[in-house]
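Q: I have 574 residues here and want to know how they pack in 3D. Can you give me a structure?
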Amino acid sequence: MLKILLSRIGKYRKETILTPLLMVGEVLMEVLIPAIMAQIIDVGVAQGDLPYTFKMSALLILAAFMSMFFGVLGARTAAVASAGFARNIRHDIYYKLQDFSFSNIDRFSTSSLITRLTTDVQNVQMAFQMIIRMFVRSPIMFVFAILMVLHNGGSLVFVYAVAIPVLAVMIVVMMNKAHPNFEKAFKSYDGLNRVVGENLTGIRTVKAYVREESETERFDESAGQIYKNFVAAQKIMAMSQPVMMSVMYLCTIAVSYIGARLINVSHMTTGQLMSVYTYNTQILLSLIMIGMFMVMVTISRASAERIVEVLTTVPDMDKNEDGVKVVANGDIEFDHVNFAYKPGSPVLEDICFKIRSGQMIGILGPTGSGKSTLVSLIARLYDVTSGSVKVAGRDVREYNLKALRDEVSVVLQKNQLFSGTVEENLRWGNKDAGDEEVRRAAVIAAADPFISSMKDGYKSHVEQGGSNFSGGQRQRLCIARALLKSPRILIMDDSTSAVDTATDRQIREALRNDVKDLTKIIIAQRISSVEDADEIIMMNNGRIEDIGTHSELLGRNANYRGLYETQVKGREEE
């Protein structure tokens, strides 16, 4: 785990190496200061040597200034190194997510990935900064201070020989007990992010159903779970401070008692005892800082494990960089395809059909019949469990993934627009498209009239998620964006459900007449959206129930006929 994280230091190696060296310089100066003070007391003051006192005082000031210089510079390099380290981790996680398949993302969940990119990385960043500063500074300070105590009053070292093991045992026990609670706390963050995300995304639904109190209760429950886990962990870690301070005061008492006896028998001078007091503080503060470092490591360990889990996950869909890069045409074939999101729970079973390039195909079926899953296999959003999906006569797994998806445009059920302008959103399909190409795609999608009627036209602002557009307008913008890719295959997954029937018909006619070579697959709930398709696929319970034209299905398929009669009757009543 440590090796994987440290490999992300990258170009911040210089600051990472320089920080510990500066910490060594700071410690040397701090350790030198009490020794100089001892000399001032024992020689300069005791003997009344004023020039010597002034000389050593100047040396003391220089040491203090150098200590401050090394400390400030070390703090700056540590900040740069830790911030850069966190930046690299976020960069690698984000780029790793771009390689994840839908099934990888389903495994982690969106809320969990957001937590790992934010809270977990922040914890690891803080721990890293403490490692290159305190983990170096405190042990070196401890060792040097012990050596100086040994030099000034050797027998006083036995005080620390008792104190150090006591502190070490306490810290290790507290770490082992607190870690599971911190691990639970960070997992609880995933739940909190999920609740907040769902609430903000569906705020209109929440208000429409007057569910604010219910949502507040959900939030309080998630936040309360984090509180409980952190309190459980902090109760354990809170014991560290009083234990450390108690040991520190006991050591001070012991040093005072033993030091006084050594002065009485002339084995120690007053100046040496004064310096030992300072070294005593340095030794025990070093131990306290090591304890605080261990607390931070305990907190960040759970975060580090979650980060490494993402970084080491192998995407279960190979990009096939050396695969076929040219999709010859829009022919599609499903050859005995089976698919399951989870083993033992099939979603699609024995799917077989062929589509010729340029055809318009409709797909109908009840909710949960596998329509969306079926078309997602064409663009390799998921891979088949068995069988094969072929495009232009080749298994989709033989293609370079980017080349395949460039030729398969999918307009999903959930319309997603991004903050920016209308033009910028449409150019997601083709960033190099000219103004005429953008307008032509919008005309085919029946989006040009409402875009042109806006004050700024194609330069009009789009709010996050397209919230300043109606559902039908968002759908038409998404269709235009997909067409701008100039793909060989266009999949419309119930993407005209929010437009009126007249506009729906207009879009279909434009697709049939203006992009004749484009293979068009339309998933719909309304028969009117697919009745003029070359063929209609009826699905039920993950299987193909029937395939035929509108008239053929109307004559032989009872389910299709029942659905048609229901919808026709409804239109007549309207």
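Q: Anything worth noting?
A: The chain is about 65% helix and 10% strand. The radius of gyration is 35 Å.
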